[in-house]
Design goal:
Elements: H1 5-33, H2 37-59, H3 69-77, H4 83-107, H5 123-146, H6 151-165, H7 174-179, H8 191-217
Helix pairs in contact: 1-2, 1-4, 2-6, 3-4, 3-8, 5-6, 5-8
Length: about 220
């Protein structure tokens, strides 16, 4: 049965909801269980990679399992998705992400709505987010084109690794970045840092989109 627009939008909403719910929730759980930041980050990264594998596998044949505005931007640049659908998907992702963050606050007995005080912006994190997003988009473009059935595990492993090899902990997702403003916990990001992170993510995605196209269509590939 052909997927309707509603089912696709709902898939993007639910997927991003669970992604942020897991990112924020596992971060709070890590803080509650240990004062060791390395252990908290380890738990946070494993949980995030795990949920990415699940939601991509679950929804890839329904909506394409984007859950990330810069992935949509990349596909739009390469003519794989229309502007109207792109806009609707991005709105669904942002709303789903924010609600996921708020629910995490609720069931870990935090304030339902709170601004993060976690200042993350620096030149090093700006460069880190460019690299993190570049690598993510390139992974999606190349593996998605050549071996789509392995895309879920590839993205999950990339982001799990990205938590550790980047100084920004590899947000690489504007919807997730916006949502994480609303929790003053381990995974939060101060609103003043959000614009810089999103700018870096867009730059990384744009560069990766053109580099990925070169690999996909190069006769030497």
């Amino acid at each position: 049965m052909k997927n309707t627009i509603f089912s696709k939008v709902l898939a993007e909403f639910i997927g991003t909801f669970f992604l942020v719910l897991t990112v924020v929730g596992s971060g709070i759980m890590g803080e509650n269980l240990s004062d060791n930041l390395a252990l908290t980050l380890l738990g946070n990264s494993i949980a995030t990679g795990a949920i990415l594998f699940v939601i991509i596998t679950m929804f890839i044949n329904i909506s394409g399992a984007y859950f990330n505005p810069v992935v949509i931007i990349s596909d739009y640049i390469n003519g794989k998705i229309s502007l109207n659908i792109s806009t609707i998907f991005i709105l669904a992702q942002i709303i789903g992400g924010v609600l996921g963050c708020l629910l995490s606050n609720i069931y870990f007995e935090k304030e339902i709505f709170e601004w993060s005080t976690n200042q993350r912006y620096s030149f090093s994190t700006f460069i880190s987010e460019i690299v993190a997003t570049f690598g993510l988009i390139l992974t999606i473009i190349i593996i998605g084109a050549k071996n789509k059935e392995k895309l879920a595990v590839a993205v999950a492993l990339y982001i799990t690794a990205g938590y550790w090899f980047t100084s920004s902990t590899s947000f690489a997702n504007p919807a997730v970045t916006i949502a994480r403003m609303f929790t003053d916990t381990f995974t939060g990001i101060h609103p003043a840092s959000v614009l810089y992170f999103i700018l870096a993510q867009v730059i990384g995605a744009l560069v990766a989109s053109f580099v990925g196209k070169f690999f996909i269509y190069s006769k030497k590939y």
